[in-house]
Amino acid sequence: MRLYPVIFYMAFALSTAQVFAQTYPSKPLRMVIPFPPGGIDTQARVLAQKMAEDLGQPMVVENRAGANGNIGSENVARSAPDGYSTLFTSSSTMIIGLFVSKNVPFDPFKDFTAILNVYESTQTLAVPTTLPVNSVKELVEHAKRNPGKLSYSSSGVGSWVHLTAEVFKQVTGTDIVHVPYKGTGPMVSDLAAGRVEVSFPSYATAQNFLAAGKVKIIALAAPARFSGLPEIPTIGETFPAFQRPPTWIALFGPAGMPQPVLRRLSAAGQKALESAELRSFYAKSNAVIVGGTPEDLAATMRADWDITARLVKSLGIQPE
After folding, report:
1. pLDDT in tens, the chain (320 residues)
2. Residue 190 burial by CB count (10 A; 0-12/13-18/19+): exposed, middle or buried?
3. Is the domain of 140 the same as that of 113?
4. Which of 146, 192, 245, 256 is deepest in the core (most CB within 10 A)?
5. Domain boundary among 207, 237, 267
6. For the chain, what is the domain count?
7. What CATH number does the domain containing 99 carry?
């Protein structure tokens, strides 16, 4: 007899979830980008537009920058898990930042629901065109002749750019000063202006400055050459010990999202990634589309957590 109320409640909850899923979405959705304009939001807006077409409701893109992505990310983590708030963010915020930043206000595994791994960023090693180097070897030689006089820009403490640069410094034995910025846009703007000498932006972030002749790419921070940039070597071709941190961009929701809603969002995102319009747009920025299931993204996060832990330990980095 005592089981009846429990059974009734479970049946009621299941029925309510099914009804909600059948009417979802019934109002506009929002996609939060926890960084300022000028970075990954261009890719986010195309994805949001294509998902909105499939979902039948507008998907509003909202930049909530600050604290290397923590402010916008926490906002989504504390939102209702009803499928109307999503987070378009990077492995910098969801994995790397937790190893190198103090007081991160969320747990990526407990406070979020993995929805879709969108793409892998093509990360570069870039310098201003005014810097008299044209290869990794020349940059390292220049840095060693000027210890502590060169600086590198990152999108913030705990970003993949920060960790990539520290790995680069370790394997090359160079002394280059870290200058953190609040996002990838300002990071590359000051690189183009020559206020810093080195950075590791994604190709998508750097391409406008490349076209303007303000920045040059001397290598890729990747395990292999990229088909879209076949003439550019990898850092590993000169320094085989170099290992980049995770560089994916993915879509998340708050923890506890109903499975039918999660599947609806995941399917809409996957359909968007398969569209010719989105594939063409992403190809122009040399973004490598990933896709897959929520379970695939969750597995990637667990694997990259282990990889990042080993990198941070080998570098001796302490949280700032």
Report:
1. 444 554 544 554 454 545 555 789 999 999 999 988 877 888 999 999 999 999 999 999 999 988 888 999 999 999 999 999 999 999 989 999 899 888 899 999 999 999 999 999 889 999 999 999 999 999 999 999 999 999 999 988 878 899 999 999 999 999 999 999 988 889 999 999 999 999 999 888 888 899 999 999 999 998 888 888 899 999 999 999 998 888 899 999 999 999 999 999 999 999 999 999 999 999 888 888 999 999 999 999 999 999 999 888 888 888 87
2. middle
3. no
4. 245
5. 237
6. 2
7. 3.40.190.150
Angle at 19 between CA 18 and CA 25, to 5 degrees: 100
- Cβ atoms of 292 and 116 closer than 8 Å: yes
Q: Do 251 and 202 have their domain in common?
A: no
Residue type, 312: V
Amino acid at 214: K
Q: Which domain holds residue 160?
A: 124-237
**C-alpha–C-alpha distance, residues 123 and 287, integer Å:** 9
